[in-house]
Amino acid sequence: MQPLQFKLANQGVTIFSTMTALAQRLKAINLSQGFPDFAAPDALIEALCDATRSGYNQYAPGDGWLPLREQVAALFLSRDQLLIDPVHEITITPGATIGIFAAIQAVVQAGDEVIVFDPSYDSYAPAVRVAGGIPVHIALKAPNFAVDWSEVKAAIRPHTRMIIVNTP
Fold first, then answer.
1. Residue 155's domain is classified under what CATH number?
2. Are the CB atoms for 102 and 126 separated by under 8 Å?
């Protein structure tokens, strides 16, 4: 019998785990993740209870609840004058990390290359590797962290499938 092998055995600890441990050790506020240090507002708790009593207690559709997608489309139209089809062009995910993971898994195949600008969110490269892809790192240099487009052009090869652009 072959020993169990993990897809991300060499990944190490995520920045979230590191920052959470540091915040706990220093008794500091943890700003690395969504750890509020206050109770949910009573109005929100009541609204959740009312929604549950009204039958909104099942899994949402895989692409998100249509009324929410319609509201997102309306926001883009009013704010950015972008007409986006909520049925075919908007997907709601339970968080950014899983949304990014799903997009990478949908597009990247074994041997595909994905350009990642560093410093980057620490879930990008592992998600690429799980898909069988190869992360191609381009370091952004301090102090301005601007993209050197000639370096990007040189990094694009026949197997380049994706460029992850991350901005605050």
1. 3.40.640.10
2. no
